[in-house]
């Protein structure tokens, strides 16, 4: 495992991290999550990403139970959580980044996860109805109270992030140090066109989610919908079905699979390695339902050096100018 600083801050994270979007739902109980965390740590993965909205708060609950059972030193691992959607329906309890919600939210998150602090607290989405200055001050207060060490954003525009940085610098407040965007071979535009100058000039790091495009880049949907796939499990959702079995997307995947085959590596490894080859990406957040998936995904790190300029050119030609986001329409909030 390799470890990289998040942007210009001193915090180091593993190049692959583990997302908890499905924890606390279905079969992903505390025992399963404990097994996943242990397997991740054995592979050198030290960063575990969560959110208050995952499984209506239960993801944080089972993660906290698992971490307590594992008994690791708090210095050995990194935990993040995210705020915006909320888990209740009151006017100040959902879809907001106002001060009242955020300072209450971090207290409840720490209580659920049985932690004294989180390493990174994220704004899960931008809030057009709350002044950015109010949000910046709230996260500064959160950090000053010792409940978070750093803060960041998720799916904010470069302009919004820069506005937050400018406010923080003007008032000598803690600045956002990381953005968590969707980034994969089928969704590249914002990371590659909008963020580079922000990353270069402001030192913002990227912790990217959905590096496998919800499973499309595993190649499992090229020939339709497997019976044991996510698409089959959520077949009643037409948006999910369209995003996973879309013909254009899977035609690209077929071409990418040929490149991976010629390189002698699985398509999954090629897709993950491609994300990690971006110099501004500090970590890619993966999902897993069993330890073997984590162990397999870590092997993608061996592929990064195989992505020569010629191979990358072939990849670009295979993808063409396709870049489409399902953010805002996706029925899942967790990473894969």
CATH superfamily: NADP-dependent oxidoreductase domain
Strand content: 5-15%
Secondary structural class: alpha/beta
The tally of domains stands at: 1
CATH topology: TIM Barrel
* Percentage of residues assigned to helices: 40-55%
The number of helical runs is 13
User: Which shape, going by the Cα principal axes?
Assistant: globular
Distance between the termini: 19 Å
What would CATH call the class? Alpha Beta
Spell out the helices and strands N to C. Answer: EEEHEHEHEHEHEHHEHHHHEHH
**CATH second-level architecture:** Alpha-Beta Barrel
**Main sheet record:** 8 strands, parallel, barrel
Arrangement of strands in the largest sheet: 3-4-5-6-7-8-9-10
The mean pLDDT is 92
State the low-pLDDT regions, or none: 325-336
Q: How many β-strand stretches?
A: 10
Question: Over the alpha carbons, how many angstroms does the gyration radius reach?
Answer: 19 Å
In short:
The protein is an alpha/beta fold and 336 residues long. Helix content is 41%, strand content 14%. The protein is globular, with a radius of gyration of 19 Å.
Characterization of this structure:
The structure is a single chain. The chain has one domain: TIM Barrel (Alpha-Beta Barrel). α1 crosses α2 (58-70), α1 (30-42) runs parallel beside α12 (291-298) and α10 packs antiparallel against α13. By secondary structure, the chain is of the alpha/beta class. An eight-stranded parallel barrel has the order 3-4-5-6-7-8-9-10, surrounded by five helices. The protein has a two-stranded antiparallel ribbon with strand order 1-2. It is globular. 41% of the residues lie in helices and 14% in strands. β1 and β2 (12-14) form a beta hairpin.
